[in-house]
Amino acid sequence: MVALYAPSEPVMDYNMVIIFVMAVGTVAIGGYWAGSHDVKKRYMKHKRDDGPEKQEDEAVDVTPVMICVFVVMCCFMLVLLYYFYDRLVYVIIGIFCLASSTGLYSCLAPFVRKLPFCTCRVPDNNLPYFHKRPQARMLLLALFCVTVSVVWGIFRNEDQWAWVLQDTLGIAFCLYMLKTIRLPTFKACTLLLLVLFIYDIFFVFITPFLTKSGNSIMVEVATGPSNSSTHEKLPMVLKVPRLNTSPLSLCDRPFSLLGFGDILVPGLLVAYCHRFDIQVQSSRIYFVACTIAYGLGLLVTFVALVLMQRGQPALLYLVPCTLLTSCTVALWRRELGAFWTGSGFAKDAPQTPWAATQGPVPPKAVGSSLSEQPPSEELAKSPLSTEEAGAADPAKDPDNPVASPLSPSNGDEAQPIPVVKPETSA
Fold first, then answer.
1. Which 3 state secondary structure label does DSSP give 52?
2. N or C end of the chain: which has fewer CB within 10 A?
3. What pLDDT score does 136 carry?
4. DSSP letter assigned to residue 240
5. Which segment of 35-44, 85-94, 195-204, 399-408 scores lowest on mean pLDDT?
6. Is there a contact between 320 and 297 (Cβ–Cβ < 8 Å)?
């Protein structure tokens, strides 16, 4: 008698712990980096910056129209991949190589700039990009990033070790996107998360009723169609092989996957929370709460994956956890109005008392701060003629190159500026 025996698979694999650490760590680091970078740039906005890195620090503000266009493009691209997977998969692989090398360069550049060697610059020339005279160490970094991306592209199907390079490049890409893309208001965050929440549910749970094979379009594209002749996999995921000791892993090396969208979409909300924390000086309570909520939502996703034994739309659990937690913290602190409109970030947001440290200073705040200094108080009481007041006001002097720190920079209504003598510090 002959019988086939299949050993029982463990219910949960330890590779989920690795994916959890990578995902939460990427969201936390990316959100913190994006918020700090954005606030630092706002502080330095009034200073001239003609350096070669100026264009690299530009962020992109997402508008509702951009969100709608992005979601439509995602739907269109996902359907095209489902029907023309064998042809478009190589296009996605090429885009990933280019984008991930750029992200890796952006992540490593701040550390390389602190190195004390290879600081010499390229000689004067008229070549594209090189006319900015980049440093030799930055050119070496760019060469290293391109080399890593090319090595992964060549050996991407080596299941033993290629997944390490893919995850490294993927994390760098996510960090770069979190720093570059910026949601200016919580209203924009809510719109983006809710639209992609519906998008994820539709393509995972609804599309099986619309396809002939009865399979989910999202799962088919993420794992690669079974009838694909190329046997290629999309690289836009974090992948970790199963770590169990089952003999079945000798025949096939299955991976656990987490899409980049499940990191980037909640990560944009985490970055917004960090920027708002710095704006209201709240000891990063929004940032910490939203990051913890993301980790809890990811744990719920893993539990649902184990219980249902089928692919899960992670945004189904991540979006409610992060949005509801952020709203709860804002309600508890009685800052929901400012949090919703992004006060201090949106152009038409009203100035609030806690924004006095970064925005135009209200007249009362200026008066109160100057009243503590006796020289300024005496000057405030002494009347000045119209000509003297105009000469003392730097905003009215066209020849004065120094902009007043109290003058508005975004078109808001100008605030009264107290008049002081040049030798008196205000």
1. coil
2. N
3. 84
4. E
5. 399-408
6. yes
Q: Is 216 left (phi over 0), alpha (psi -120 to 50) or beta?
A: beta
Residue 61: φ, ψ to 5°: -80, 130
Structure tokens at 130: 């090189």
Phi/psi of residue 239, nearest 5 degrees: -130, 135
One-letter amino acid identity for 56?
E
Q: Is 86 a catalytic residue?
A: no
Confidence of residue 358 (pLDDT cuts 50, 70, 90): very low
- Report the candidate in 347, 331, 223, 329 with the shortest Cα–Cα distance to residue 284: 329
More confident residue, 386 or 28: 28
- Give Rg (Cα) of the chain: 27
Task: Please answer whether residues 358 and 279 qualify as being in contact, where contact means their C-beta atoms are separated by less than 8 angstroms.
Answer: yes
CB-based burial label for 185 (10 Å; 0-12, 13-18, 19+): buried
For the residues 177-183, what does the mean pLDDT come to? 90
* Both structure tokens of 408: 């508005």
Q: Which residues make Cβ contacts (< 8 Å) with residue 201, sequence separation at least 6?
A: 313, 315, 316
The DSSP code sequence of 320-374 is HHHHHHHHHHHHHTT-HHHHHHTTTTSTTPPP-GGGTTTSPPPHHHHHHHHHTSH
pLDDT tens for 87-103 read: 899 999 999 999 999 99
Evaluate whether 191 touches 317 at the Cβ level (below 8 Å).
Answer: no
Closest CA relative to residue 203, chosen from 65, 347, 77: 77
The sign of the dihedral angle between the CA atoms of 68, 70, 75, 80 is positive
Q: Which of 239, 264, 259 is nearest to 322 (CA)?
A: 264
Given 13, 38, 200, 277, the catalytic residue: 200
pLDDT at 52 over 90: no
The span from the CA of 265 to the CA of 290, in Å, is 13
Residue 256: name the closest of 314, 175, 193, 214 by CA: 314
- Letter for the amino acid at 20? F
Residue 13 annotated to the active site: no
Q: What is the pLDDT of residues 196-225, one digit of tens each?
A: 999 999 998 898 888 887 888 888 888 888
pLDDT at 53 over 50: no
Q: Domain spans of the chain? A: 15-45+52-341, 363-391
Q: How far is CA 391 from the centre of its chain?
A: 46
Question: Cα 372–344–66 angle (5° rounding)?
Answer: 170
248-303 tens-digit pLDDT: 666 666 788 899 999 999 999 999 999 898 888 888 899 999 999 999 999 999 99
